[in-house]
Amino acid sequence: MKAFSSLVSVLIILGVIYWSFSDMKPTLPSEKVTSKTAFSIDNALYHLKKISKEAHYTGSEEHKTVQNYIVRELQKMGLETEIQTQTAINRKWFAATTTENILARIKGTENGKALMLLTHYDSNPHSALGASDAGSGVVTILEGIRAFLAKNKTPKNDIIILISDAEELGLLGAQAFVDAHSWTKDVGLVLNFEARGSGGPSYMLMETNGKNSKLLSEFLAAKPNYPAANSLMYSIYKKLPNDTDLTIFRENADINGFNFAFIGDHFDYHTAQDSYERLDRETLLHQADYFTSTVNYFANSDLSNLNSDEDYVYVNFPFMGLATYPFSWVLPMLIAAIVVFVLLIFFGIAKRKLSLKGILKGLGIFLLSILLCVGISFGLWKLILMIHPHYQDMLHGFTYNGYQYIAAFVFLNIWLLFKTYKYISKHEKITDFLIGPILIWLIINFLISSSLKGAGFFIIPVFCALAILAIAVFMDLEEKSKRILFTILSIPTLYIFAPLVKMFPVGLGLKILFVSGLFIALIFGLMVFTFHQKKTFWMQKTVGLLTIIFFGLATYNSGFTVDKKKPNSIVYIQNSDDKTAYFGTYNHTLDEYTKQIFDKNAIEGGIVNAETKSKYNTRFSYHKKTDFRNIKSSNIVTELDTIIGNKRFIELTISPERKVNKLEFITKKELKLHQFKVNDVLVNDGKTYNVKRATFLIYHVANQDKEVTLSFSVSKDYSFNVIINEISYDLLENLNFNITPRTETMMPMPFVTNDAIIISKKLPL
Questions:
Q1: What confidence tens digit (pLDDT) does each residue in 249-277 have?
Q2: Contact present, 563 and 746 (Cβ < 8 Å)
Q3: Residue 321 host element (H or E)
Q4: pLDDT tens sequence across 525-551
Q5: Which of 45, 747, 633 is nearest to 400 (CA)?
Q6: What is the pLDDT of residues 365-410, one digit of tens each?
Q7: Contact between residue 421 and residue 531 where contact means Cβ atoms under 8 Å apart
Q8: Which residues pair with 572 in a beta bridge?
Q9: What is the pLDDT of residue 611?
Q10: DSSP secondary structure of 602-644
Q11: 62-87 as b/e, with b when 16 or more CB fall inside 10 Å?
């Protein structure tokens, strides 16, 4: 009977885990949509195939092709379109370009605030196909608006469609709109559709300068069928360097909004594998569900005041979609839990269900289990990186076999917990073992209550455990009945935390596997009644076997294939001042492609002034001196250089002599620019622009840019030491080089300047 109760408990656990994931994303319908007023995934995929054939980053030929396609599709719906051409500068990212935003507007019956639908159509330079990021957002809006208009019902609110440009370059299209377009003042709410992978559930992330209660209540009133969200996610999101277009609206225009973004299959993000074929269809359907429910609601609701004076905790919860309660409840709930906990300990000792010695033993073994799970998970991943050094060339931090590693580490941690708790398996009063875990959870919740109230839902597992403890103290149930009952009472804990075990390493990289280990140890402690056995039983052996199987699968799939391409890089760097030239690569592990340049004479490390600014500040792993090709650099003309009073006024025009994609300006000493302008657009609102030995401007050359103009003033005695890097993505096509192309199992490395020619020289000032 003990084996039977264990089997039932395991089946309950597996069922709840499956339930928690299945509630977060729709499944594809068996029949095709035939109604003209319903969202058709086939129509959306048709658009996606058209716009994701090739990379279409700002400044590329395909960029204009995709722009024209989107404009035509909007015009087919009877919408009047506008291209907003505007130079934009984002100081946070040191980035600038001349953007071309696509705009349309559906007129409502009333004159209240407008609803904005937002995504971007540029892909990441220079090889990303952009099917997910953010082609999925483009086609969600195109097909969603078609279905919306097919109903022939005029909304109360105006609906503004902004398909922005240059999001990948520093949110520059959104910056251009907020800075320069008259419609900005009309916007009351923004719905932004984004991606940071090619699959998985789409998460809702709120952006607000104030509190979230009204936004949350309005989101729930829209009745999305698959809300995937929790209040911890936005707190973490804000601590990461991953802003979206919506951030510009919040920070610069105080406009609230919702991000709908998915992060699964993160290894495809910003790569040549972000393709039409690899986008998860169910994920696209999830975006469609968000679009349909929220647009139908917000197009007809009051958007004039969505600010709140109260924050809410929210989390996915069984049968409820999202469970919510105010931040103000977090501390009272914690105090109530502490009071109940103390009383249960008192009655437990009085009724001889608890012993002080047993409690201390249980606490010690629980703390040991946490240390083992966290420590071994952290150290083992470091060891795996040493065994498979090519993983470091996947800058996402999430490998193609990442899901297999997650499963392997989950089973490893559970096996470790079984082995650890085996040392107290003969202890008679099992109830003792629950006290330590509840105490640690209460301490965690105390820390949350003061510094991270968005994680206030961590108190829910505590109440589940207190219910289990109360039954254990006051009732004498049979062992088999207790195991099943206590597993059922743990359903909310499993439902909430099972997705988090997967989400953290997927979204933040496998280096975060130790966080999953922490969650597993914490949950195991609260479910000790479910897992406790006096003898080794089949579950422990099964978990051990599964650990071996999944580590074996991950190792077997550790290589690269046509569908799991190896990222690699070669860059040519020419210093036009001293007539030297080098090749550089960001790869730690050299392959057939990189070895054609980097032989035994290659030097480890980087090159001064040659490593362009990148998302992860990645440095060259190897470089090698090569012949100076004398590739022509841009023509730089000083239009103005005069001293008035104690200031020197300068205006420069940079005119590329070849196809150039990016210009970087790097100062080698502290620099203070006054009234700094790029193409007559003020940087930093005209305030003094201070830079300390760093890149102070990255200008991405757009299709319509024939030249770039910089103007500024400095102290008249200032001595410049500024380097300009002129970057083009044509290394493989340039006739000065004879580089053998990549094989079909390779692709350009994302997040770095790649397949590029970099011409570096000192700015003549």
A1: 999 999 999 999 999 999 999 999 999 99
A2: no
A3: strand 321-326
A4: 999 998 876 655 678 889 999 999 999
A5: 747
A6: 999 999 999 999 999 999 999 999 999 999 999 999 999 999 999 9
A7: yes
A8: 583, 757
A9: 66
A10: -EES--TTTS---TT----SEEEE---------EEEEEEEEEE
A11: bbeebbebbbebbeeeebebeebebb
Query: Would residue 339 be called left, alpha or beta, if left means φ above 0 and alpha means ψ between -120 and 50 degrees?
Result: alpha
* DSSP codes, 554-615: HHHT-S--SSSPEEE--EEEEETTTTEEEEEE--SS--HHHHTT--TT-EES--TTTS---T
Q: In angstroms, rounded to a whole number, what is the distance separating the alpha carbons of residues 129 and 109?
A: 39
CATH class label, 55-310: alpha beta
Percentage of the chain exceeding pLDDT 70 = 97
- Domains of the chain, residue spans: 2-20+327-556, 55-310, 564-765
CA distances from 105 to 74, 299, 300, 393, 452 (A): 10, 12, 15, 44, 40
Q: In the prediction, which pLDDT does 582 show? A: 95
Tell me the C-alpha distance between 161 and 159, whole Å. Answer: 6
Paired tokens of 282: 């169910």
Determine the 3-state secondary structure of 245 from DSSP: helix
Query: What is the SS3 string spanning 673-739?
Result: EEEEEECCEECHHHCCEEECCCEEEEEECCCCCCCEEEEEEEECCCCCCEEEEEEECCCCCCCCCCC
> For the segment 542-594, what is each residue's pLDDT rounded down to a tens digit?
999 999 999 999 999 999 999 999 999 999 999 999 999 999 999 999 999 99
- Distance, CA of 138 to CA of 357 (rounded, Å): 62
Smallest CA-to-CA distance from 320 within 252, 257, 227, 384 is with: 227
Rounded Cα–Cα distance for residues 99 and 34 (Å): 38
Nearest to 65 by CA among 117, 130, 116, 119: 130
Q: Is 362 exposed, middle or buried (0-12, 13-18, 19+ CB in 10 A)?
A: buried
Whether residue 140 contacts residue 283, with contact meaning beta carbons closer than 8 Å, is answered with no
Contact status, residue 365 vs residue 434, Cβ threshold 8 Å: no
Closest CA to 569 of 599, 553, 589, 551: 589
Cis before 126 (ω within 30) = yes
Strand 580-585 with 622-625, pairing: antiparallel
How far does CA 431 lie from the centroid of its chain?
A: 41
d(CA 437, CA 368): 12
Cα–Cα distance for residue pair 178/710, rounded to 1 Å? 22
- The model scores a pTM over 0.70: yes
Q: What's the rounded Cα separation, in Å, for the pair 114 and 105? A: 9
Residue 332 to residue 629: CA distance in whole angstroms: 71
Question: 31 CB contacts (<8 Å, ≥6 apart)?
Answer: none
Q: At what angle do helices 432-451 and 513-526 cross, to 10 degrees?
A: 130
Closest CA to 300 of 447, 178, 151, 181: 151
314 closest CA partner among 433, 228, 436, 372: 228
Q: What are the Cα distances from residue 135, in Å, to 138, 272, 315, 379?
A: 5, 13, 29, 38
